[in-house]
């Protein structure tokens, strides 16, 4: 495969990752009518981990030599932090989805860009360009507008705030993952998925939640495998070929795909405030994707 073909394949993988992840909010919103929020969070991540474990077994049988670096004990602190944050984030997101629209949650997910950048600056001492600072400001403004109850209100939606907390958790998790990004991405997804899913399941049982409809568990597992497991898998491989900046540019279409799916699948209709926030967010996401170019 020549360089141009590899480049085009990486672009396709980045857009595919975005499209797969975008399916999460609207379909999770639907399934939350059949399953409690913490149970949903648990089985979504278990689906990602178990699904990618099967993919890994198939890959290992086909490959004679290992080409990816394995995780070691030195990576343990980052793995523990990743699992803990991936337990908290989807739980906050699922509770948030019960209180706000899937379209809102999809757009608020872009706050993860802000959280990732700010945490990278203050904890990991990475630099932030002027363009990215401007993107951060625009995304914050958009997030505030999306968090308001309505156009004439200055009270904040609890559901939107929970989604923002989830995005912050994932921002910190992104920085932890970055520290071991040279290791086998499939192995990382498996550990994150199974570890976080099992942890969330234990918390759900301790909180008194129970499985009310076993028939929907396979559906949620498949949703997790597709929207989290495969999405992260394709994202990492795209990032290796075309770099972080270009990958994030293509992946930034995910919230907008999520909004379109929410409109068609759930019949959600935006208000004026949503439209204003969307326009501001489009500029912010574009600037964030262009910041390393």
Give average pLDDT, whole number: 85
Number of helices: 12
What sequence of helices (H) and strands (E) makes up the elements? HHHHHHHHHHHH
The dominant shape is globular
The counted number of beta strands is 0
User: N-to-C terminal Cα separation, in Å?
Assistant: 26 Å
Largest sheet composition: none
The fraction of residues assigned to DSSP E strands is under 5%
Helix content: over 70%
Task: Estimate nothing, just give the exact number of structural domains.
Answer: 1
Ranges where pLDDT stays below 50 over 5 or more residues in a row are none
Oligomeric state of the chains present here: single chain
Indicate the structural class. mainly alpha
Radius of gyration: 19 Å
How do the helices and strands line up, and which of them pair or pack?
Blueprint: H1 3-22, H2 24-31, H3 37-62, H4 76-97, H5 102-108, H6 111-122, H7 130-147, H8 158-178, H9 185-206, H10 217-251, H11 254-266, H12 272-290
Helix pairs in contact: 1-10, 1-11, 2-5, 2-10, 2-11, 3-4, 3-9, 3-10, 4-8, 4-9, 5-11, 6-7, 6-8, 7-12, 9-10, 10-12
What does this structure look like?
The protein is mostly helical. The chain starts with a helix and ends with a helix. Helix 3 packs antiparallel against helix 9 and helix 6 (111-122) crosses helix 7 (130-147). It has helices at 3-22, 24-31, 37-62, 76-97, 102-108, 111-122, 130-147, 158-178, 185-206, 217-251, 254-266, 272-290. The protein is globular. The protein is 76% helix and 0% strand.
